[in-house]
Amino acid sequence: MTLGQIGVVRPQRMRFTTPLPLRSGAQLAQYELVFETYGQLNARRDNAVLVCHALNASHHLAGTYEGEDKSEGWWDNLIGPGKPLDTDKFFVIGINNLGSCFGSTGPMHVNPETGRIYGADFPVVTVQDWVDAQARVVEALGITQLAAVLGGSLGGMQALDWSLRYPDRLRHCIAIATAPSLSAQNIAFNEVARRAIITDPDFHGGHFYAQGVVPKRGLRVARMIGHITYLSDDVMEQKFGRQMRAAELGYSTQDIEFQIESYLRHQGDKFSNYFDANTYLLITRALDYFDPAREHGGDLSRTFASATCKFLLTSFSTDWRFSPARSREIVKALLDNKLDVSYAEIDAPHGHDAFLLDDPRYHGLLRAYFERIAQAFEEAAP
Protein backbone atom coordinates (compact mmCIF):
# COMPACT_ATOMS: atom_id res chain seq x y z
CA MET A 1 0.00 0.00 0.00
CA THR A 2 1.46 3.37 -0.99
CA LEU A 3 1.12 6.41 1.24
CA GLY A 4 -2.32 7.94 0.96
CA GLN A 5 -3.98 4.95 -0.68
CA ILE A 6 -6.44 2.53 0.91
CA GLY A 7 -5.74 -0.16 -1.69
CA VAL A 8 -8.14 -2.95 -2.61
CA VAL A 9 -11.31 -3.16 -0.50
CA ARG A 10 -14.21 -5.59 -0.30
CA PRO A 11 -17.80 -4.79 0.65
CA GLN A 12 -19.34 -6.55 3.63
CA ARG A 13 -22.97 -7.43 4.21
CA MET A 14 -25.13 -7.51 7.32
CA ARG A 15 -28.56 -9.16 7.48
CA PHE A 16 -31.24 -8.05 9.92
CA THR A 17 -34.36 -10.02 10.82
CA THR A 18 -35.66 -7.67 13.52
CA PRO A 19 -38.31 -5.53 11.79
CA LEU A 20 -37.38 -1.93 11.11
CA PRO A 21 -40.32 0.43 11.69
CA LEU A 22 -40.41 3.27 9.16
CA ARG A 23 -41.68 6.83 9.54
CA SER A 24 -44.39 6.13 6.97
CA GLY A 25 -45.99 3.56 9.28
CA ALA A 26 -44.74 0.66 7.19
CA GLN A 27 -41.93 -1.64 8.24
CA LEU A 28 -39.26 -3.82 6.71
CA ALA A 29 -39.52 -7.27 8.27
CA GLN A 30 -36.04 -8.20 7.08
CA TYR A 31 -33.34 -6.46 5.11
CA GLU A 32 -29.64 -6.40 4.28
CA LEU A 33 -27.19 -3.50 4.42
CA VAL A 34 -23.92 -3.40 2.51
CA PHE A 35 -21.00 -1.55 4.09
CA GLU A 36 -17.25 -1.04 3.93
CA THR A 37 -14.71 -0.24 6.63
CA TYR A 38 -11.24 1.27 6.43
CA GLY A 39 -8.52 1.40 9.08
CA GLN A 40 -8.60 -0.39 12.40
CA LEU A 41 -10.95 -0.10 15.34
CA ASN A 42 -8.80 0.60 18.39
CA ALA A 43 -8.97 -1.34 21.64
CA ARG A 44 -11.21 1.27 23.29
CA ARG A 45 -13.50 1.30 20.24
CA ASP A 46 -13.64 5.09 20.33
CA ASN A 47 -12.02 6.00 16.99
CA ALA A 48 -14.88 5.13 14.63
CA VAL A 49 -16.18 7.67 12.09
CA LEU A 50 -19.41 7.00 10.20
CA VAL A 51 -19.58 8.62 6.76
CA CYS A 52 -23.09 9.09 5.34
CA HIS A 53 -23.52 9.18 1.57
CA ALA A 54 -25.39 11.57 -0.69
CA LEU A 55 -27.90 10.97 -3.49
CA ASN A 56 -26.04 8.95 -6.11
CA ALA A 57 -23.17 7.71 -3.94
CA SER A 58 -22.84 4.55 -1.85
CA HIS A 59 -20.92 2.74 0.88
CA HIS A 60 -17.81 2.70 -1.36
CA LEU A 61 -15.99 5.69 0.10
CA ALA A 62 -12.37 4.91 -0.70
CA GLY A 63 -10.01 2.38 -2.19
CA THR A 64 -10.59 0.30 -5.30
CA TYR A 65 -12.17 -3.01 -6.22
CA GLU A 66 -9.95 -5.81 -7.39
CA GLY A 67 -9.93 -6.23 -11.16
CA GLU A 68 -12.13 -3.18 -11.79
CA ASP A 69 -10.82 -0.11 -13.60
CA LYS A 70 -11.93 3.34 -12.40
CA SER A 71 -13.41 1.92 -9.21
CA GLU A 72 -12.08 4.49 -6.74
CA GLY A 73 -14.41 5.31 -3.88
CA TRP A 74 -16.35 8.54 -4.26
CA TRP A 75 -14.50 10.28 -1.38
CA ASP A 76 -11.09 8.72 -2.00
CA ASN A 77 -9.45 12.15 -2.06
CA LEU A 78 -10.50 12.68 1.57
CA ILE A 79 -10.18 9.25 3.20
CA GLY A 80 -7.00 7.19 3.53
CA PRO A 81 -3.60 7.01 5.22
CA GLY A 82 -2.30 10.52 5.78
CA LYS A 83 -5.39 12.13 4.20
CA PRO A 84 -7.67 14.57 6.07
CA LEU A 85 -9.71 11.64 7.44
CA ASP A 86 -6.67 9.56 8.27
CA THR A 87 -7.30 5.80 8.34
CA ASP A 88 -4.05 5.33 10.26
CA LYS A 89 -5.90 6.98 13.14
CA PHE A 90 -9.60 6.39 12.48
CA PHE A 91 -11.82 3.41 11.75
CA VAL A 92 -14.07 4.66 8.96
CA ILE A 93 -17.46 3.12 8.15
CA GLY A 94 -19.51 3.63 4.99
CA ILE A 95 -23.03 2.15 4.88
CA ASN A 96 -25.21 1.86 1.78
CA ASN A 97 -28.67 3.18 2.64
CA LEU A 98 -31.91 1.24 2.39
CA GLY A 99 -33.60 1.73 -0.97
CA SER A 100 -30.30 2.19 -2.77
CA CYS A 101 -29.31 0.36 -5.93
CA PHE A 102 -25.79 -0.48 -4.73
CA GLY A 103 -26.43 -3.63 -2.72
CA SER A 104 -28.58 -2.81 0.30
CA THR A 105 -32.20 -3.95 0.20
CA GLY A 106 -34.12 -1.77 -2.22
CA PRO A 107 -36.62 -1.69 -5.09
CA MET A 108 -34.49 -4.03 -7.24
CA HIS A 109 -34.67 -6.83 -4.66
CA VAL A 110 -37.29 -9.53 -4.10
CA ASN A 111 -39.96 -8.83 -1.51
CA PRO A 112 -39.86 -11.98 0.69
CA GLU A 113 -43.58 -11.59 1.45
CA THR A 114 -44.65 -11.77 -2.20
CA GLY A 115 -41.75 -13.47 -3.97
CA ARG A 116 -41.74 -10.63 -6.53
CA ILE A 117 -39.37 -7.73 -7.06
CA TYR A 118 -40.40 -4.76 -4.92
CA GLY A 119 -40.27 -2.15 -7.69
CA ALA A 120 -42.63 0.70 -6.85
CA ASP A 121 -43.94 -1.29 -3.85
CA PHE A 122 -40.75 -0.69 -1.86
CA PRO A 123 -41.81 1.46 1.12
CA VAL A 124 -40.95 5.15 1.24
CA VAL A 125 -37.86 5.74 3.38
CA THR A 126 -36.69 8.88 5.15
CA VAL A 127 -33.44 10.25 6.52
CA GLN A 128 -34.61 9.16 9.98
CA ASP A 129 -35.14 5.59 8.72
CA TRP A 130 -31.63 5.52 7.27
CA VAL A 131 -30.14 6.75 10.53
CA ASP A 132 -32.03 4.09 12.51
CA ALA A 133 -30.73 1.40 10.16
CA GLN A 134 -27.18 2.77 10.37
CA ALA A 135 -27.37 2.73 14.15
CA ARG A 136 -28.06 -1.01 14.04
CA VAL A 137 -24.93 -1.62 11.97
CA VAL A 138 -22.80 0.51 14.31
CA GLU A 139 -24.18 -1.39 17.31
CA ALA A 140 -23.50 -4.74 15.64
CA LEU A 141 -19.89 -3.67 15.13
CA GLY A 142 -19.61 -3.27 18.90
CA ILE A 143 -19.33 0.54 18.85
CA THR A 144 -21.26 2.35 21.58
CA GLN A 145 -20.13 5.87 20.66
CA LEU A 146 -18.80 7.23 17.37
CA ALA A 147 -15.95 9.69 17.33
CA ALA A 148 -17.82 11.50 14.55
CA VAL A 149 -20.56 11.28 11.96
CA LEU A 150 -19.62 13.01 8.70
CA GLY A 151 -21.65 13.77 5.60
CA GLY A 152 -22.04 16.18 2.72
CA SER A 153 -25.30 17.33 1.12
CA LEU A 154 -27.91 14.62 1.85
CA GLY A 155 -25.19 12.92 3.91
CA GLY A 156 -24.96 16.08 6.01
CA MET A 157 -28.67 15.82 6.75
CA GLN A 158 -28.07 12.32 8.05
CA ALA A 159 -25.19 13.55 10.21
CA LEU A 160 -27.45 16.24 11.69
CA ASP A 161 -30.16 13.68 12.33
CA TRP A 162 -27.69 11.48 14.20
CA SER A 163 -27.11 14.37 16.61
CA LEU A 164 -30.87 14.57 17.23
CA ARG A 165 -31.89 10.91 17.32
CA TYR A 166 -28.82 9.44 19.02
CA PRO A 167 -27.21 12.37 20.88
CA ASP A 168 -25.22 10.14 23.22
CA ARG A 169 -23.78 7.99 20.45
CA LEU A 170 -21.52 10.53 18.72
CA ARG A 171 -19.01 13.08 19.93
CA HIS A 172 -18.81 15.20 16.78
CA CYS A 173 -21.20 16.00 13.94
CA ILE A 174 -19.57 17.23 10.72
CA ALA A 175 -22.14 18.50 8.23
CA ILE A 176 -20.91 19.87 4.90
CA ALA A 177 -22.83 21.76 2.19
CA THR A 178 -26.17 20.84 3.71
CA ALA A 179 -29.40 22.40 4.99
CA PRO A 180 -31.96 21.92 7.78
CA SER A 181 -34.61 21.35 5.08
CA LEU A 182 -35.05 21.81 1.35
CA SER A 183 -36.26 25.10 -0.03
CA ALA A 184 -39.31 25.20 -2.28
CA GLN A 185 -36.96 25.69 -5.24
CA ASN A 186 -35.05 22.52 -4.35
CA ILE A 187 -38.26 20.53 -4.02
CA ALA A 188 -39.31 21.90 -7.40
CA PHE A 189 -36.11 20.67 -9.06
CA ASN A 190 -36.63 17.23 -7.53
CA GLU A 191 -40.22 17.10 -8.72
CA VAL A 192 -39.31 17.97 -12.31
CA ALA A 193 -36.66 15.23 -12.25
CA ARG A 194 -39.15 12.72 -10.85
CA ARG A 195 -41.73 13.61 -13.47
CA ALA A 196 -39.16 13.03 -16.19
CA ILE A 197 -38.80 9.45 -14.88
CA ILE A 198 -42.47 8.76 -14.12
CA THR A 199 -43.64 9.94 -17.54
CA ASP A 200 -41.08 7.86 -19.42
CA PRO A 201 -43.10 5.22 -21.35
CA ASP A 202 -40.67 2.57 -20.08
CA PHE A 203 -41.40 3.34 -16.42
CA HIS A 204 -44.54 1.16 -16.26
CA GLY A 205 -45.64 2.54 -12.91
CA GLY A 206 -42.33 1.56 -11.35
CA HIS A 207 -42.60 -2.12 -12.33
CA PHE A 208 -40.39 -1.88 -15.40
CA TYR A 209 -38.21 -4.79 -14.23
CA ALA A 210 -40.96 -7.24 -15.16
CA GLN A 211 -41.10 -5.67 -18.62
CA GLY A 212 -37.37 -6.10 -19.21
CA VAL A 213 -36.86 -2.38 -19.83
CA VAL A 214 -35.32 0.62 -18.06
CA PRO A 215 -36.71 4.19 -18.19
CA LYS A 216 -33.39 5.54 -19.44
CA ARG A 217 -34.85 8.62 -21.10
CA GLY A 218 -36.31 9.81 -17.83
CA LEU A 219 -33.15 9.01 -15.90
CA ARG A 220 -31.06 10.96 -18.41
CA VAL A 221 -33.20 14.07 -18.05
CA ALA A 222 -33.31 13.73 -14.25
CA ARG A 223 -29.54 13.58 -14.09
CA MET A 224 -29.14 16.54 -16.44
CA ILE A 225 -31.45 18.64 -14.27
CA GLY A 226 -29.60 17.61 -11.11
CA HIS A 227 -26.18 18.20 -12.61
CA ILE A 228 -27.04 21.77 -13.55
CA THR A 229 -27.86 22.50 -9.90
CA TYR A 230 -24.59 21.00 -8.63
CA LEU A 231 -22.41 23.40 -10.64
CA SER A 232 -21.99 27.14 -10.25
CA ASP A 233 -22.55 29.56 -13.11
CA ASP A 234 -18.85 30.53 -12.93
CA VAL A 235 -17.67 26.94 -13.34
CA MET A 236 -20.03 26.28 -16.24
CA GLU A 237 -18.84 29.46 -17.93
CA GLN A 238 -15.19 28.60 -17.32
CA LYS A 239 -15.51 25.01 -18.53
CA PHE A 240 -17.85 25.48 -21.45
CA GLY A 241 -18.88 29.08 -22.02
CA ARG A 242 -20.55 29.28 -25.40
CA GLN A 243 -18.18 26.84 -27.05
CA MET A 244 -19.62 25.10 -30.07
CA ARG A 245 -19.15 21.50 -31.15
CA ALA A 246 -18.65 22.56 -34.75
CA ALA A 247 -17.20 25.62 -36.42
CA GLU A 248 -20.55 26.68 -37.83
CA LEU A 249 -24.04 26.80 -36.39
CA GLY A 250 -26.23 23.95 -37.57
CA TYR A 251 -29.45 25.88 -36.95
CA SER A 252 -31.08 22.75 -35.50
CA THR A 253 -33.60 22.61 -32.69
CA GLN A 254 -32.77 18.96 -31.89
CA ASP A 255 -29.08 18.35 -32.52
CA ILE A 256 -26.29 19.08 -30.03
CA GLU A 257 -24.79 22.47 -30.86
CA PHE A 258 -23.03 23.64 -27.68
CA GLN A 259 -20.37 21.85 -25.62
CA ILE A 260 -22.45 22.22 -22.46
CA GLU A 261 -25.24 20.27 -24.16
CA SER A 262 -22.79 17.50 -25.05
CA TYR A 263 -21.50 17.39 -21.46
CA LEU A 264 -24.97 17.16 -19.93
CA ARG A 265 -26.05 14.42 -22.31
CA HIS A 266 -22.87 12.48 -21.52
CA GLN A 267 -23.58 12.73 -17.79
CA GLY A 268 -27.18 11.66 -18.36
CA ASP A 269 -26.15 8.66 -20.45
CA LYS A 270 -23.68 7.48 -17.81
CA PHE A 271 -26.20 7.85 -15.00
CA SER A 272 -28.95 5.96 -16.85
CA ASN A 273 -26.64 2.97 -17.20
CA TYR A 274 -25.99 2.44 -13.50
CA PHE A 275 -28.71 4.09 -11.40
CA ASP A 276 -32.16 2.71 -10.62
CA ALA A 277 -35.23 4.83 -11.37
CA ASN A 278 -37.21 3.79 -8.27
CA THR A 279 -34.16 4.48 -6.11
CA TYR A 280 -33.96 7.97 -7.58
CA LEU A 281 -37.60 8.60 -6.68
CA LEU A 282 -37.10 7.30 -3.13
CA ILE A 283 -33.96 9.30 -2.41
CA THR A 284 -35.25 12.59 -3.76
CA ARG A 285 -38.40 12.13 -1.65
CA ALA A 286 -36.23 11.53 1.43
CA LEU A 287 -34.54 14.85 0.65
CA ASP A 288 -37.91 16.58 0.34
CA TYR A 289 -39.24 15.13 3.59
CA PHE A 290 -36.25 16.02 5.79
CA ASP A 291 -37.41 18.77 8.13
CA PRO A 292 -36.66 17.96 11.78
CA ALA A 293 -37.96 21.36 12.91
CA ARG A 294 -41.45 20.42 11.75
CA GLU A 295 -41.93 18.40 14.94
CA HIS A 296 -41.04 21.52 16.95
CA GLY A 297 -43.38 24.00 15.34
CA GLY A 298 -40.75 25.00 12.80
CA ASP A 299 -38.42 26.23 15.56
CA LEU A 300 -34.91 25.05 14.65
CA SER A 301 -33.46 26.18 17.98
CA ARG A 302 -35.92 23.97 19.88
CA THR A 303 -35.10 21.15 17.48
CA PHE A 304 -31.44 21.09 18.52
CA ALA A 305 -32.13 21.40 22.24
CA SER A 306 -31.49 17.66 22.66
CA ALA A 307 -28.10 17.70 20.88
CA THR A 308 -24.98 17.32 22.99
CA CYS A 309 -22.10 16.70 20.58
CA LYS A 310 -19.69 19.21 19.05
CA PHE A 311 -20.36 20.47 15.54
CA LEU A 312 -18.44 21.53 12.46
CA LEU A 313 -20.45 23.03 9.62
CA THR A 314 -18.96 23.99 6.28
CA SER A 315 -20.53 25.74 3.30
CA PHE A 316 -19.28 27.03 -0.04
CA SER A 317 -19.84 30.53 -1.37
CA THR A 318 -21.10 29.52 -4.83
CA ASP A 319 -23.31 26.64 -3.69
CA TRP A 320 -26.74 27.96 -4.62
CA ARG A 321 -28.53 24.67 -4.04
CA PHE A 322 -27.45 24.41 -0.38
CA SER A 323 -26.44 28.00 0.19
CA PRO A 324 -24.30 29.27 3.08
CA ALA A 325 -27.41 30.98 4.47
CA ARG A 326 -28.93 27.55 5.18
CA SER A 327 -25.84 26.45 7.10
CA ARG A 328 -25.94 29.69 9.08
CA GLU A 329 -29.51 28.84 10.11
CA ILE A 330 -28.17 25.65 11.69
CA VAL A 331 -25.26 27.48 13.31
CA LYS A 332 -27.64 29.97 14.92
CA ALA A 333 -29.82 27.17 16.28
CA LEU A 334 -26.77 25.45 17.76
CA LEU A 335 -25.49 28.67 19.33
CA ASP A 336 -28.94 29.35 20.76
CA ASN A 337 -28.47 26.09 22.66
CA LYS A 338 -24.92 27.06 23.73
CA LEU A 339 -23.45 24.11 21.88
CA ASP A 340 -19.83 23.88 20.75
CA VAL A 341 -19.92 24.77 17.04
CA SER A 342 -17.34 25.73 14.44
CA TYR A 343 -18.38 27.15 11.09
CA ALA A 344 -16.41 27.77 7.89
CA GLU A 345 -17.73 29.44 4.76
CA ILE A 346 -15.25 28.70 2.01
CA ASP A 347 -14.94 30.95 -1.02
CA ALA A 348 -14.84 28.29 -3.74
CA PRO A 349 -16.00 28.54 -7.37
CA HIS A 350 -17.28 24.98 -7.78
CA GLY A 351 -20.88 25.21 -6.58
CA HIS A 352 -22.45 22.35 -4.64
CA ASP A 353 -19.92 19.86 -6.03
CA ALA A 354 -17.20 21.60 -3.99
CA PHE A 355 -17.72 19.16 -1.11
CA LEU A 356 -16.46 16.34 -3.34
CA LEU A 357 -13.36 18.18 -4.54
CA ASP A 358 -9.99 18.79 -2.93
CA ASP A 359 -9.90 22.51 -2.36
CA PRO A 360 -6.82 22.95 -0.11
CA ARG A 361 -8.64 25.25 2.36
CA TYR A 362 -11.52 22.80 2.69
CA HIS A 363 -9.30 19.77 3.13
CA GLY A 364 -7.01 21.71 5.47
CA LEU A 365 -10.01 22.54 7.65
CA LEU A 366 -11.14 18.90 7.83
CA ARG A 367 -7.60 17.70 8.46
CA ALA A 368 -7.18 20.10 11.38
CA TYR A 369 -10.57 19.17 12.83
CA PHE A 370 -9.93 15.43 12.66
CA GLU A 371 -6.45 15.90 14.13
CA ARG A 372 -8.08 17.61 17.12
CA ILE A 373 -10.48 14.69 17.50
CA ALA A 374 -7.62 12.18 17.30
CA GLN A 375 -5.55 14.13 19.81
CA ALA A 376 -8.44 14.16 22.26
CA PHE A 377 -8.93 10.39 22.26
CA GLU A 378 -5.17 9.77 22.29
CA GLU A 379 -4.86 11.95 25.39
CA ALA A 380 -7.74 10.03 26.98
CA ALA A 381 -5.94 6.72 26.51
CA PRO A 382 -4.81 5.08 29.77
TrEMBL record:
InterPro entries in the cross-refs: AB_hydrolase_1, AB_hydrolase_fold, HAT_MetX-like
Coiled coil: none
Gene3D superfamilies to which the protein is assigned, alphabetical: 1.10.1740.110, alpha/beta hydrolase
Residues annotated as the enzyme's active site: S153 (nucleophile), D319, H352
Domain AB hydrolase-1 as annotated: residue spans: 47-357
Record site feature (Important for acyl-CoA specificity), residues: R321
Domain of life of the organism encoding this protein: Bacteria
Keywords of this entry: Acyltransferase, Amino-acid biosynthesis, Cytoplasm, Methionine biosynthesis, Transferase
Pathway: Amino-acid biosynthesis; L-methionine biosynthesis via de novo pathway; O-succinyl-L-homoserine from L-homoserine: step 1/1
HAMAP family from the UniProt entry: MetX_acyltransf
Family to which this protein belongs: Belongs to the AB hydrolase superfamily. MetX family.
Stated name of the protein: Homoserine O-succinyltransferase
Species for this entry: Roseateles koreensis
Name of the gene: metXS
